[in-house]
Amino acid sequence: MLTDVIDLLSCPHDGDGLGLTAAGVLGCRSGHRFDIGRGGYVNLSAGRSVHTADTTEMVLARERAQQTGVHDEITAQLVSVVSDLPGMDVNPVVVDAGAGTGQQLAQVLGTCGGRGLALEASVPAARRAARAYPRIGSVVTDIWSHLPLHDDVADLVLNVFAPRNAAEFARVLRPTGALVVISPALDHLQEARDLLGLLDVDRDKPERLRRSLEGTFRLEESTPVRTSVLLDHDGLLAVAGMGPTAAHSGLHDWGSRLAHAPENVDVRIAADISLWSMREAS
Hints:
Elements: E1 19-22, E2 25-27, E3 33-35, E4 41-43, H1 56-67, H2 72-83, E5 93-97, H3 103-112, E6 115-120, H4 123-129, E7 136-140, E8 154-160, H5 166-172, E9 173-184, H6 190-196, H7 205-213, E10 217-232, H8 233-242, H9 251-258, E11 264-278
Parallel strand pairs: 4-7, 5-6, 5-8, 6-7, 8-9
Antiparallel strand pairs: 1-2, 2-3, 9-11, 10-11
Helix pairs in contact: 1-8, 2-3, 8-9
């Protein structure tokens, strides 16, 4: 709930601390006010429009895809990596930047305890993240912008298939904190991509990831996740609907592609989990 994480939040307009000023309203001393949505989230995007945010249809597709187990092994490996980190057994603060529906954050908190903050550009996703686990506070914000958090509040920042803002991640992390990034390998969901004509993973993505982080963080280890999941046609449509191709391709096209496809398709799951520590200031 938001009440578990209010002390971490700052006003997106002036950086002042936020508190409950009335039932269902957060505010700062300067008079800025933010209504808590009926779903339990708060919008701290400061009026900025985020054009790349997932739509309701994409969020629903993501939920259906998660029910097929497409992310199960990735989440299990994530929890394993995080559980071994120092300090994760003492009520940690975990910030998930680009949290989606909050499922990975919920699994981490369910294993390690502590409290979590789900940052998400999509209102439909933020609404679901607010309900994913009792001690998650859900905030709508633009990951590319200044995050509405105080300095040095997080023990761990998660970034799962989401945009990265290295400077802001470093600002909100404690000096002893860690950043864990999950990024797709080039052949992630390859069979679904080939069958449905989905966008490929950018071949330069691993190098861009390294360049975006290495000036601020130091790579400690990388854990590959390689497995597969058997998807029926509904599962394939869910995988297609949750990704960026959904904005450019319709169900009619995907349906025609599936007309002659096998009833079940074994789809590769390929991702890399990288653990980064803070570089010491020079």
